[in-house]
Amino acid sequence: MLTARYIADDKLMPWLLSLAETRQVLAPVRQGGQTLFAPLDADSQLDLEGLADASAKAALLPRCETLLEFHYSKGEGVPSRTELEVRETLPDRDAFLFGARPCDAKGFTVFDRVYDGGSRRDIYYCTRRDKTIVAALACTDPADTCFCNRVGGGPGDTDGSDILFTPVEGGYVIEPVTERGEAFLAEQPLVEAEGRLEEARQVRKDVAESMPGGDPLGGAQGEVLRLFDDQEFWGGVAAKCLSCGACSYLCPTCYCFNMTDEINGDDGVRVRTWDNCMSFQFTLEGSGHNPRNGKAQRMRNRIGHKFSYYPELHDGNLACVGCGRCIVHCPVSMDVRAIVAQARDRALAKQEHAND
Amino acid sequence: MASSIDDLKTEIKKALPGLDMVIAWAAGPDPLSHTPLFITEEADVERIEWDPRCSQNLAGYLPGLRGKKVGIVVKGCDARSLVELLQEKLIDREDVTIFGLHCTGAVDARAARKALGSLRGGLESVSVNGGTASFSMSGEPRTLPLAEVLQKKCFTCTGADAEVCDHFIGEHGEPPRVTETPATTLEELEAMSMEERLHFWEDQMSRCIRCYACRSACPLCVCQDHCAAQSREPHWVDQTDHPREKLMFQAIHALHTAGRCTECGECERACPMGLPIMTLKQALNRSIQDLFDYRAGTDPDQAPPLFEFREEEKNIKEREW
Questions:
Q1: Domain containing residue A232
Q2: Would you say residue B1 has pLDDT above 70?
Q3: Which GO terms of the molecular function aspect are on file (chain B) (predicted)?
Q4: Is residue B40 part of a domain?
Q5: What is the per-residue pLDDT across A207-230, written as a single tens digit (0 to 9) for each?
Q6: pLDDT higher than threshold 90 for residue B43
Q7: Cβ neighbours of residue B94 under 8 Å, at least 6 residues apart?
Q8: What distance in Å separates the CA atoms of residue A152 and residue A217, rounded to the nearest whole number?
Q9: At which of A162, A189, A210 does a domain end?
């Protein structure tokens, strides 16, 4: 039995701080003019207005994660022999991610299919996922760049969350989504939501109806793929792109990484760091050949991965949750929505032309 | 500005048949910042926008388009980047047709978004009049002080008119009068001890996500795909998340642009984390000015000081110590 609960506005921060005594609490806080997910402490300035500037993905997929530590030493008695000691560094902390938006939480389901995909389990990701309770916060003020409703989501959706918070008059209604969300809440000193549950449902319904309109962006796998060799199209789309990684690194669904050994004397770490397909180095081969030599090929990959290759592999689910951060923070104001729409129109026009 | 935009369109239409393309600005998905427009057909000309939302410096596209005949629309600060590109022979003067404008100030989209709140109702126009900026939202004008909504580089603008150009459109004018500006990051840092400065930068760099938008947006960052930041050999910067590694990259960037940086502000505008990284370049530019009496991007015929070697430098008295 899943029970909805309630917390008043003025009780929220003290409750989160009490949680922070036994686990890491990650929440959107003000940092140098930005709103970013960071460990909460008594000095933190919680910011629950709108969308955080960066997504919450680092909670489960850190910017830089130590996969292992190693140490070289001279073999005992045999100076010519070098011994290598390797130490495992699995995440060991429980965490509570608070205030992720439904789009951020849905992004974790994109990761789950890749990092927890049956035979291929990424132990670092899965350990973090198991140790982190995801508490999403339903949106009440979607931005002009939000489009979750066009990619299979919604401002009050629960995909990827354990718990959903919905702002109501004077506080928040807290609804468990998963069994472990319920088990977590059952141990908390929270009152039952009672009559407020209906208000929460109404808030979510009203916000969903206020979302900007537009055609769904899913189901374009075939169209995007048909443009694979259309140099003119991708060249045009990518002309203004600077080939930086702002879009990928702010994206709640981009999960590509690089691995490097960083060695200092006899000690070293193997780190996994975010990587992005807009970078020249992403596909640079050891021979010096680069199959995605230009930004047009890289843009084709970015759009193709999110709207064609990923959904093709994962039952039509897109690798885009419509948070719009790639639009807001792009230095040249690229619009992923427009690119997909243009791709679809062009592929359809080509097909009609072929049928003439 | 209304007449400027009509004159701009007319001039571009006239020049377009002799050019491969013209780069200007058009309305983009973000109501507060216009997006680059690559014009190849006359019909595209109608999409041109010209107002304080034309923040991006378009000059950075030119080296990548070398060999083509390109027209480009520039503000005063953008023209200084052009001058530097010409000085460094990264572009060819005869291939570039410059449409210069007088700029009344460029909007800092992030700051303006914060100051204005929700833009769901739409934003029809933005203009700068005297000491204030006016944002027309759903027919209602909202007036805000320039210090709140313009890019920081505009506070110390040294020339709002494109000085090097083939076609100057509209009236010449003075830089925006920005009053009550907060202390610059450089001034704040100068009041700090060395230890405090390091702490300041470690705190800032802890937020850096290493997207390298600062580098990609820099019109003078010529290495681009072959940047020291991602090189394994030599191993200047490691890939761990330590703020000092990220600061090391900023130091490399600042040193590579010393005496070349025209303070166009693209590095800071592009940074999705809002880090005050132009400050490092400003500090070096001050040294360059003291040592060589030189300001980047002012004279196409001058050579940047660090491109030259003189046995005796006027202001560096190494033998008199």
A1: 220-355
A2: no
A3: iron-sulfur cluster binding; metal ion binding
A4: no
A5: 999 998 899 999 999 999 999 999
A6: yes
A7: none
A8: 9
A9: A210
Contact assignment for B30 to A244 by CB distance below 8 Å: no
- Cα–Cα distance, B62 to B45 (Å, whole number): 19
pLDDT means over runs of 10, chain A (356 residues): 92 98 97 94 95 96 97 84 92 96 98 90 96 98 94 97 98 97 96 94 96 93 95 96 96 97 95 96 94 96 97 96 96 97 94 80
Q: How far is A226 from chain B (nearest CA, A)?
A: 25
Q: Which pLDDT score, from 0 to 100, does residue B321 have?
A: 56
Q: How far is residue B214's CA from residue B227's CA, in Å, rounded to a whole number?
A: 12
**Residues A158 and A286 both lie in one domain:** no
Residue B131 or A112, more confident: A112
ipTM of predicted assembly, 2 dp: 0.94
Interface of B with A in 209-228 (CB under 8 A): 209-213, 215-217, 224-226
Judge whether B38 is closer than 8 Å to chain A, CB to CB: yes
A281 shares a domain with A162: no
Range of the domain at B251: 183-320
Best probe of the B interface among A232, A258, A299, A329, by most B CBs < 10 A, is A329
Q: Are residues A193 and A340 in the same domain?
A: no
Pair A229, A204 in one domain = no
A100 forms bridges with which residues in the sheet?
Answer: A136
CB-based contact B30 A331, cutoff 8 Å: no
Task: Confirm whether A45 is domain-assigned.
Answer: yes
Q: Which of A66, A328, A333, A342 should be substituted to probe chain B, the one whose Cβ sees the most B Cβ atoms within 10 Å?
A: A333
Q: Are residues A49 and A160 in the same domain?
A: yes
Phi, psi of B73 (to 5 degrees): -100, 130
Find all residues with CB under 8 Å of B310, minimum gap 6, and list them.
none
Q: What is the pTM of this model?
A: 0.94
Question: Does the CA dihedral A41-A42-A47-A48 come out positive or negative?
Answer: positive
Do residues A191 and A52 both lie within one domain?
yes
Tell me the shortest Cα–Cα distance from A76 to chain B, in angstroms.
31
Mutate to test the interface with B, among A57, A244, A277 (most CBs of B within 10 A): A244
The pairing of strands A163-168 and A132-137 is parallel
- The count of structural domains within chain A is 2
Which is nearest to B108 in space by CA: B185, B184, B52, B51? Answer: B52
Instruction: Confirm whether A215 is domain-assigned.
Output: no
The angle formed by the CA atoms of residues B85, B91 and B95, to the nearest 5 degrees, is 135
pLDDT at residue number A240: 97
Instruction: With respect to residue A145, please indicate whether it lies within any of the assigned structural domains.
Output: yes
Tell whether A113 and A257 lie within a shared domain: no
A61 plus A194 within the same structural domain: yes
Residue after which a domain boundary falls, among A210, A245, A273: A210
Q: Does B240 reside within a domain? A: yes
A244·B212 Cβ contact <8 A: yes
**Chain A with chain B: Cβ pairs closer than 8 A:** 127
Residue A260: list chain B partners with CB under 8 A: 232, 238-239
Q: Which residues of A touch B278 (CB under 8 A)?
A: none
What percent of the residues of chain B are helix, what percent strand, and what percent coil, each to the nearest 5? 40, 15, 45
> Is there a contact between B272 and A260 if contact means CB atoms under 8 Å apart?
no
Q: What confidence tens digit (pLDDT) does each residue in B89-124 have?
A: 999 999 999 999 999 999 999 999 989 887 777 889
